[in-house]
Amino acid sequence: MKYTSYAAITLIVISVSFCCFAYRTHQAAVPETAGLKDYYKDYFPIGVAVSARALRTDEAGLLVRQFNSLTAENAMKMSAIHPEEQRYNWRDADSIAAFARRNGMKLRGHTLVWHKQVADWIFKDANGQQVSKEVLLQRMKDHITTVVKRYKGTVYAWDVVNEAISDHKDEFYRNSTWYRICGEEFIEKAFQWAHEADPEALLFYNDYNEINPVKRKKIIQLLQGLMSKGVPVHGVGLQGHWAINEPSKGQLEKTFEDFLTLGLKLQITEFDISVYPKEHEMRERQPEDSAAGFTAAKEQQQIEQFRMCFDIFRKHSNVLTGVTFWNISDRYSWLDNFPVRGRKDYPLLFDKDLQPKKAFWSVVRF
User: Has the keyword Hydrolase been applied to this entry (predicted)?
Assistant: First the structure.
């Protein structure tokens, strides 16, 4: 009996020692001062969405230490970069591009065609009337050509068309002004003209709610149609605006499985994990929202969700060519105002003091 006990204990000690050795071996290749980009250097680039303002604050140091890819959160959207027909505003986008070049970081362009944050002038003539399809397509071509050529050689990938698929079950395309005037043709033309402006850039279709099987099927159908026509689309961007309660491991695995059938590159383009259960629409603030916060229970749920996501990301690193977080730290997130305006969220890996949260360690200790 004693012999059996000693043998069992010996086996346990050996097993634990082996696991610790394997963990230390992985960590030994990564210095103590390493950032996310260093832990994932053999998997995929780790990116982050930034404003030009952030590059002039104490956040700049964190950006350089932790990330090796940038996305302009708003500076390259049409309303910001092309506010008037004959006027472009390059200042903020140029500063982000210069920061990326200076620090040897990749740069993703976001986004060329979207139904939001688009300047009103593009849809109207001098009399305020809606323009024709021909006029709108020409304006779109001019915009895409000018912007893509300016950042040729600096932006390696573009989100060409953003969120063109409807969330409604009985509707395929989003009923945007682009679609109402041009029909589906605006999508393929956008990719065509982006490719002509920079043949070396990788061109992505980008969308959210991709874990929903109904919407996912429509996104895949759209991409299959574009590919069958020879449209130069190279990848699909899964935004990844998720929460502590979704996706489940099964949902995320199925999402990857379905998109892999396309044979395109995949990227997680706008990643965050809200500490509140997922909601898909804006709503009014409720009394219980005032008591909301980053509780220990929510923290643990977020840790587990981040760990699960990155486990699956690493599993698919042969086709997953980038993971980009949407914002830098819990100091600021777009989720502070969605779905409830003014309700603080904590969806990222760094706290308001720019320190790694427990969730950070859950994704680098593998």
Answer: yes
CA distance 260 to 280: 26
Contact 102, 152 (CB under 8 A): no
Distance (Å, whole) CA 330 – CA 363 = 17
Instruction: Return the CA Rg of the chain.
Output: 22
The predicted-structure confidence for 273-300, as pLDDT tens digits, reads as follows: 999 999 999 999 998 887 778 999 999 9
201 token code pair: 């850039």
Q: How far apart are CA 51 and CA 48, in angstroms?
A: 10
Condensed to tens digits (0 to 9), the pLDDT of residues 177-231 reads 999 999 999 999 999 999 999 999 999 999 999 999 999 999 999 999 999 999 9
Enumerate residues 6+ apart whose C-beta is below 8 A from 162: 110, 111, 113, 114, 115, 206, 207
355 in Cβ contact with 347 (< 8 Å):
no
Cα 123 off chain centre by: 28
Task: Check: CB of residue 360 under 8 Å from CB of residue 325.
Answer: no
Q: What is the pTM of this model?
A: 0.91
Give the catalytic positions in this structure: 163, 270
Q: Which of 97, 100, 189 is nearest to 150 (CA)?
A: 97
Report the C-alpha gap between 234 and 249 in whole angstroms.
26
**Cα 303 from Cα 311, distance rounded (Å):** 12
> Structure tokens of 283?
């709503």
For Cα atoms 324, 325, 330, give the angle at the middle one, nearest 5 degrees.
165
